[in-house]
Structure formats: structure tokens, C-alpha cells
Amino acid sequence: MYGPSLFTDEILKSVDKELINHLQTEKAEIFGQPLPMEMEVPAFDLNNPGEYTFNFEIGLKPEFELADLAKADITGYNIDITDEMLNEEIERLQNRYGNMTDKEAVDGANNVLNVTFEEVDADGNVVEGGLKKDNSLLLSYFAEAVQKELNGKKAGDSFNIILADAFEDKELEFIASDLGLNKDNESDKKKTFKLDITKVSELEKRELNEEFFNQLFPDGNVKTEEDFRAAVKDQAFNYWASQSRNQIQDQIFHKLVENTTISFPEPFLRKWLITQNAQEQEGQPAKTEEQIDQEMPTFLNQLKWTLISEKIMRDQKIEVKQDELKAFAQAQLFSYMGGMMPNDTEQPWVNDYIDRMMKDRKYVEDAYNRIQSQKVFEWAETQIKPVAQQISAEDFSKMVNEHQHAHR
What we know:
- The chain is 51% helix and 15% strand.
- The protein is α+β, with helices and mostly antiparallel strands.
- The mean pLDDT is 88.
């Protein structure tokens, strides 16, 4: 009664076992999983067993050579830290740590308006399901014409704005980003919002004195305004140096991907994607084969970078160790706390957090990938000879934004 069914199960188990043994013996580096090829299923007869042949298709990972980074044309950008940038940053810090006092009505550029943005149509009617968000804005953020209109407004008053008309370009970018919009998208820029004023305050900037200096730089080495400006300039330099390094790494990524030739088994990968899609989309509409074809170039690009990273890790004997994963978790914890690191990093609650994260498989995989990527780029940076170029912060930011838009 049960023999034929058990016999079939044992045959299929045997197939899996032999397939795995074969791949391990041959040390085959493959993409995904082997795919069974179409065949006429034989009649398994318990009483008359014989030899059965099962055919599988595999996608072998190709051998390839990395592009020569030593010959790559890489630019290292040195961003100018101007007095104007420095003054703006100091004023931002004075405002950020300043004191707030309530006011009856709007009457000056240092006024702060607590407002609620609510999306409305051209007639002022609230858009169902539209954007709604609270924000706190300096009056000086608004365009000059809007500032004049707001003079005398009080908590409880409302007014309508069109984003692009209400803010200059620099502030528009900040406001649009906070609302989840794109300042370069015409339809986003033309959105209309009703702003409900919930509170009017006066911002009193912090004085540039030793108390303020010690609050920001508690090591006690900043005692004068000159020391303060130098410390703020160092922070700005470090920030822009990190942005420049990110840009160098982006150039490395594109040089490696665009100049490393890898021949993929595309027919197999397409079949594998279709199979994976059918398995993963249970309860949801599966992607069509046309959609998968459209996504293939992006998929192959990502796969190319994965193979390049794996080759660098293997050839350079780069490893990610358990201690590095724990250090990553600890650093991330302290970043959540505003960068404030306890004097005693061996406190039980710190170790408890790290141990808990190390048991989270998804977190460990993400941390591993980030550390691996960092190590790959660190090695790659030792292979390049970047040409230094001076550039303003404004031009650098514009260049990076244009590059990001071009590669979306």
C-alpha cells in the first residue's frame, strides 16, 4: 500500500544527496540553486527498480580579472572651507542651542513658527490622504515677500503657500526633504499647503562665551572665540573630508563595475529569477517575464559588484571577525545616543545589547555586509592614485546631486 510512495520519496532524496555530493566534489561555484530540466518523469516501479537519470541546469560563476585600479582616472576633491561657511555654521550652532521665549505675534526675523503643514488643492480644500507634518521654522527661512505677509500673525492663524514660491532654493531643499518630496520635481514644487501656526517664539542666540564653548567641546581646550572658530572649522573639515572620501569610493565602484569584464550565464539567471519569483510571491501577483527582463540589467550590475567584492575579499584574504561585528554594534549603539560614549564601555547593559544583536541573524548579516564593503573600499583606496582638485562646497554638492540623479 505504501511502498510505491516511499520508493519515490527515497529516489528524490537520493537525487538531492547525489547532486550535493557532485557539486562539492567538483568544487563548483554556482549561482543560486540547480534547476531541474524538463524531462519525461519515469514510472518508478518498486517491484522492478532500475537506474534513473535526472538532469539539472546550473549557472557557473565565471572566472574574471579585476580592472586595474592603478590606471583608473580618479579625482580626489579638496573642499574649500570658506569664512562664509564657517560663519553660517557658528550661527547655526548658536541658534540650535539658543533659548526660546514665547511671543504674542510674529514681528522679527529671529521669530520661530511652530506650524503644521497640510496639503490642500488649488482651492484650499484639504487633499484626502495628502501630506501632513509638523515643523518648526525660523521666519527668515521664508521668502522675503512671505515674511512680510506673516508679520503680525499669531498662534491659531493659518495661511496657504506654494512650496516653490514660499522658500528660496536652499531652504526649499530642506523643507521638501522633510516632507518627503523632491525640490527638483516640478509637481512637488508646485504643491500647495495650508500652514497652521501653533506657536510663535523668539530665538535668542547663544552668546559666544566659555560656557557655550565647554558645552560643545567638553574637553576644556576651547577657551576663546578664536579657539572656537578653529574647532568648528576642524569639524567642518572632517565632515567634508568624509564626503570627499565617499565620492572617491563611488568613483572606485563605477570604475570596477564598468571596466571589469564578466560573462554571466544570463539564460540560466533569467530562469532562476523566474523560479524564485514564483516561489516568493505567494499570495501576491507574481512579476511577469517582461518585468523580469526589464530588471535584468540592474540585477546583473548588482551581481557584478557582489562577484567583484567576493574576489577582492578572497584574493586579499580579507575577513570580518566576530570582534568587529561586536564593535560595530557598540559603535551603532553610541551613535543612537548622540555619540556620547560612557566612560565604562563594559557596563552590563552595553554587553546585553551587543549579545542580543549578535543573536539577530538579519542584523548580523547587515553588519557583516557593511564591514565587508568598508574593507573592500579600504583596500581599493590603496590601489588608486587620485588627482587632487580644489572645489567649493556648493559645486561639490551640486556635482554629487547630479550624479545621484543620473544613476537612479
